Amino acid sequence: MAGAAIFDVDGTLTDTNHLHVVAWWEAFRQAGHTVPMADIHRAVGLGSGDLIERLLGADRDPGQDEAISSAHTVLYGTYFDRLPAFRRAGDLLRTLAGRDWRVVLATSASGAELEALRRAVDADEAVRDTASSDDVDRGKPAAEPVELACRLAGVTPGQAVFVGDTVWDMEAATRAGVRGVAVLSGGIPRADLERAGADAVYRDVADLLDHLDDSPFGPGPG
């Protein structure tokens, strides 16, 4: 067994970050808040509660949180039948599984959203397990989702590699003691990802697949 290949989904395997930005922007607007889309983009990847607090502040009216989160869920749900996977995302998961890596998804998505994302990637046969937001008390950048993914795969942190697109992903990997591989497809600058702990950075999952043998998933250290 080669180890655990842990993947974030939004912005990593699927081209969905900007759909989240628009849905959150409208959810905030409906609640009477004007939040710049650039700020929302930087917060994508956090769990709903953490994202709302980051964007509205700790002194906000927390009584609005549930309504804002629910509005985002409804708005984002209108895209479920056409969520786009990144080119060769499924191929990457199948290739890693074929090389005896245990593929686990670690995502803040759950329920119908997670089902829609998995349909888009279309590689369920390669996915061993999923650590979703329903399974942890604290989402990324806390280590808990990555630690759970390691347990589900039956590996130690030193046997795992986590692929993500946000600083929250890289911070979670670092805190869990797992090597972090970043992709630029989520729109976060390379320097920010490296500062957050990325050991390697690729343009997208297709680029990672093209350079797999020279990556942390290659025959060398990994």
TrEMBL record:
It comes from the Bacteria. Coiled coil: none annotated. NCBIfam families: HAD-SF-IA-v1. It holds the Pfam family Hydrolase. This is Haloacid dehalogenase. SUPFAM superfamilies: HAD-like.
